[in-house]
Amino acid sequence: MLPLVALVGRPNVGKSTIFNALTRTRDALVHDQPGVTRDRHYGVCRSLEDRPFVVIDTGGLTDDADGIAGLTAQQAMAATVEADLLVFVADARAGLFGPDQAILAQLRRTGKPLVLAVNKIDGLDPDVAMAEFSRCGVDHTVPLSAAHRSGIDDLLDAVSARLPSPDASGETEEPGDPNRIRVAVVGRPNVGKSTLINRVLGEDRLVASDVPGTTRDAISVDLERDAHAYRLIDTAGIRRKGKVEEAVEKFSVIKSLQAIDACQVAVIMMDASEGITEQDATVLGHVLEAGRALVIAVNKWDDLSKYQREQIQATLARKLTFVEWAEIVFISAKHGSGLRELFRAINRAYASATRSFSTSEITRALEAAAEANPPPSVRGHQPKLRFAHPAGGNPPTFVVHGGRIKNLPTSYTRYLENFFRKRFKLVGTPIKFEFREGENPYADRKNVLTERQVAQRRRLMRHVKR
């Protein structure tokens, strides 16, 4: 494991901005509103070529120990426990507050190396601004402006000087195994996405509460389960566009959509007590548009009676006919029931979405489909399906070559999808077809008659006129 560096401080002091500057990404959600960050966010800083390290972005610490603020503080303190080095971030414009002194005392009690980063120094006299923070008694104090990337190199030097030695930290390799199955958990607000991931991990890794909109950022968590490696991505709830008013929520929805594009399997969570709603269908549309493998998880299943379960199953069968290839799993994120079936469905969907095909087997399947049900005539001409070949995975894409096939009806494309899905036993993934026609070599050529043909035509015309 690489050494861990935790960014800790009050709300709205610029921890997420420093995180993005160190990792050279935009993974952390940044906004002027205090309390945007709530969960622990991990990223790798590779600016030090010889000593990469993991940066942990945390939520702001406050005196409030109740509600979401209290849960956020618990996540921040959990980061200080696992970190090898602590970076206390303060606001140069706000000065040194009483809460800063209390937080600093907590960090000192951990006994871990400490660096003081005084942010938002731009536009101020550095000597005057840093004079107030000199009474903190921290050896390594760095003035910086993360928004302008001023002082980031000095912060890296201070962190590098206090990082534990490679032997002491036991660092072996960088996180981020590309072979991990990327699974995005998406859905409406308050359907239990964070609760599900916490239950799978067996710890309170994410802030989960009954308040809708608790999760605001897309948080990635690595997991090994049943000889498979996963990267679970917890996302913010996606509401209807007309109900999204706050700028922070708009950014959260953008992060959720980006997580859908980046994942390989999307798990859409629905609330069994509310049934499938119009917004659930909208989230399904986002996943289908991205072409990702799909698993539908119906949560809070344990709270329903037998009659209610039968009604929900009938409703799902009626309203989800357009994704009947997706597996539906009934779970309880709170109690952990149905999780084994959920991960089996994820594995099947991933295997189907990333399966490799050969040109010969695809062409044989196309010939069998055309023999069983020939394509209908298009403008009086019979389309010809000559051969097909694979064009990529996730989702499986097949290119069909032939004549007069660009105007095939949608119904026949659906027939091909169902035929291929049944023949190759593909579950939980959409299938795409691309139809290509061969170019007509005589399309732009004019048939020029010879002198003999012209004379013959004249004789025929005279004969016709008589």
Task: Tell me the layout of helices and strands.
Layout: E1 4-9, H1 15-23, E2 41-45, E3 53-57, H2 67-82, E4 85-91, H3 98-109, E5 114-119, H4 126-133, E6 140-143, H5 152-162, H6 166-169, E7 181-187, H7 193-201, E8 219-225, E9 228-234, H8 247-262, E10 265-271, H9 278-290, E11 293-299, H10 306-319, E12 327-330, H11 339-353, H12 359-372, E13 384-390, E14 397-403, H13 410-424, E15 432-437, H14 451-465
Parallel strand pairs: 1-3, 1-4, 4-5, 5-6, 7-9, 7-10, 10-11, 11-12, 14-15
Antiparallel strand pairs: 2-3, 8-9, 13-14
What does this structure look like?
With 466 residues, this protein is of the alpha/beta class. 37% of the residues lie in helices and 20% in strands. The chain has helices spanning 15-23, 67-82, 98-109, 126-133, 152-162, 166-169, 193-201, 247-262, 278-290, 306-319, 339-353, 359-372, 410-424, 451-465, and strands at 4-9, 41-45, 53-57, 85-91, 114-119, 140-143, 181-187, 219-225, 228-234, 265-271, 293-299, 327-330, 384-390, 397-403, 432-437. The strands form three sheets. Strands 2-3-1-4-5-6 form a six-stranded mixed β-sheet, sandwiched between helices. A six-stranded mixed β-sheet has the order 8-9-7-10-11-12, with helices on both faces. The protein has a three-stranded mixed β-sheet with strand order 13-14-15. The relative contact order is 0.08. The mean pLDDT is 87.
